[in-house]
Amino acid sequence: MVEEATIIIVSKLGGGGSSNAGVVNLAITALLVVAAAAAAAVMYSTTRGRLKSPWSRRKRKHALTPQQWKSFFTPDGKLRDGVKFLKKVRSGGVDASIRSEVWPFLLGVYELNSCKEERDKLRTQGRKNYEKLRRQCRKLLRCNTGESISNGDSDAFIQGMDSAESEDVVSARESLSSEEINSSPACSDNPILLEDIGGSTRFIDPNISDSDSTGSDSSQDAEVSQTFPSSDIKEENEESSEVQSKLRLTEDFSTWQRIIRLDAIRANGDWIPYSKTQADVSEERALRSAEAVGLKDYEHLEACRIFHASRLVAILEAYALHDPEIGYCQGMSDLLSPIIAVMTEDHEAFWCFVGFMRKARHNFRLDETGIRRQLSRVSKIIKSKDSHLYKHLEKVQAEDCFFVYRMVVVLFRRELSFEQTICLWEVMWADQAAIRAGIGKSGWNKIRQRAPPTEDLLLYAIAASVLQRRKQIIEKYSSMDEIVRECNNMAGQLDVWKLLDDAHDLVVSVHDKIE
């Protein structure tokens, strides 16, 4: 079209000489306008159906470097500027060499305004609390396998574990290593029950000393019970029912242990290139760690994967005791695997996982209320941004967005590579850390980043991944199953930083509309 217009104008003006110079200039200007319009039309036709983000051409900024990380701290170990730190993580993620130091801040293990002394105390206490959970796990494992030793031997073992000297020794090595060195206490005649404390539930072991039962004096309770027996039959029935309920929960733990071991063995090895120290673990140490947690059927695995699976078992069992309402569900091992690849100390990995699960735990509720809420939000985002796509989803009865169920449950773990997953999570964690620290929209505006922090960045990223494929979905797919296959085929095809850019654009454009 442009070439034809050029030929016509030149043929008409060819013999005019200098008197036609002004007309020629005018014609050239007209041609440029026509060419620009044509280019715009071509661009529109090629980009139609794609989510357009003002940041789409933004390249990933450099990750937070060790030098920058060190410069953020005052002499007493406090972060100078939490907002600037979170902004840096949000725009480029974290350098692999400092992730183990940075993640506890992002995941709420440490407060942004904490000093080094406070963090050291938290780390020490966290290790002790984790070790208590692991002792209970080992005891339950022996109970479930039917092994036993005398109560005297069991008590001696536990008292030894509780001694200050033992704790000092444990603090000098990795948490899992302590399990490799110490034999497990066996099941005594007394069952391990659950105790309600302040509205929460946790496992207790009658054989563990009082120092292990926070705020609880079981020996005094026993004396009171013997001295003043209850005459109220109703109370006795209620107590009996409560004990039965607690015993059922110990049976649940037995089920969790079995499923955890199956999932740990099946865990893939995509983390290996990113964790050289753990990848090079000796076979001897790997086998010791497997024996310590009762792992079996691992003969087909290489040493590093046996060691990784053993760590998964240890930490997931401890989490099941820490949060018995959720316990363990398949998919949780997918979330823990990247964390233990980065965090070499089990107790630190455990508390990072607890921080991660503070929000993600709702994905694993049996009633699926958390999942349904999130799917509903993805649906609202798509409806607000693209009514045409939403109407098509309604037509194929997929407006509930169950086709992104897997993305929600394991937070893109299956759709992105190991490194891409970590980058997405770090940006997501930075948003959540900003909200915990009370950094709202006004605070974010001061650092010239348009999209304010949101608890639901993951959901905006999921909606963005669907919107990026709107054309295929509308033109090619006429059923929910076809859309599910398309979403499952996203694995390895997503650009995580483009995805995050589009997610942030959605936060800006639709967040206020769907609140």
Architecture overview:
The structure is a single chain. This protein is an all-alpha fold and 515 residues long. The protein is built from 25 helices and two strands. The chain has a two-stranded antiparallel sheet with strand order 1-2. A hairpin with a 2-residue loop joins strand 1 and strand 2. Helix 17 (369-385) packs across helix 22 and helix 22 (457-467) crosses helix 25. The chain is globular and about 60 Å long.
Secondary-structure topology with pairs:
Blueprint (H helix, E strand, L loop, with lengths): L1 H12 L7 H27 L18 H6 L10 H11 L6 H8 L9 H30 L5 H12 L1 H8 L3 H7 L11 E5 L2 E5 L13 H10 L5 H34 L9 H4 L3 H10 L10 H20 L9 H11 L3 H15 L8 H17 L1 H9 L9 H6 L7 H19 L4 H5 L11 H11 L2 H7 L3 H9 L7 H19 L1
Antiparallel strand pairs: 1-2
Helix pairs in contact: 1-2, 4-20, 6-14, 6-16, 9-13, 11-14, 13-14, 14-15, 14-16, 15-16, 17-18, 17-22, 17-25, 22-25
Helix tally equals: 25
Largest sheet: 2 strands, antiparallel
Report, as a whole number of angstroms, the end-to-end distance.
48 Å
CA radius of gyration: 30 Å
Query: Structural class, please?
Result: mainly alpha
What is the string of helix and strand elements?
A: HHHHHHHHHEEHHHHHHHHHHHHHHHH
Observed structural traits:
about 525 residues; mainly alpha; 25 helices; disordered N terminus
